[in-house]
Amino acid sequence: MPQNTPPLPPLPTISEAESQVMLQLWREHPQSAEQLALSLMPEQGWQLSTIKTLLNRLLQKGAIAADKDGRRFLYRPLVAEADWLKSQSLSLIDRWFGGGLAPLVAQFASHRKLSAEDLTALKELIKEQDRG
């Protein structure tokens, strides 16, 4: 009889601003607050104090860890990008489309013509679901 694996603990809720910090850490880690500021200041217009506030929030939520490196801290993600993306996309589908994928695809298709590649990929997904 197969063993049931325990469900994964829920991921911390990450705000839009916090997600910008996480994206930088997923691209390259570990990074100091100053290193993050160099990439986020031009993009977001944030000051170092804002970035430090966001880092502290992410630390409190358990989304990142901080390791002491001399007089500074180096930050690294504890939440995997793939897990966060999955959680975000499922949340979007649940909130906006009642959990249904067909309404999601219909919404996108009503605003943008599906390419031949999109249609082929969707057909392949349907075949895989029918087999599984």
UniProtKB/TrEMBL annotation:
Belongs to the BlaI transcriptional regulatory family. SUPFAM superfamilies: Winged helix' DNA-binding domain. InterPro entries: BlaI_family, WH-like_DNA-bd_sf, WH_DNA-bd_sf. The keyword Repeat does not apply. Gene3D superfamilies: Penicillinase repressor domain, Winged helix-like DNA-binding domain superfamily/Winged helix DNA-binding domain. This is BlaI/MecI/CopY family transcriptional regulator. It comes from the Bacteria.
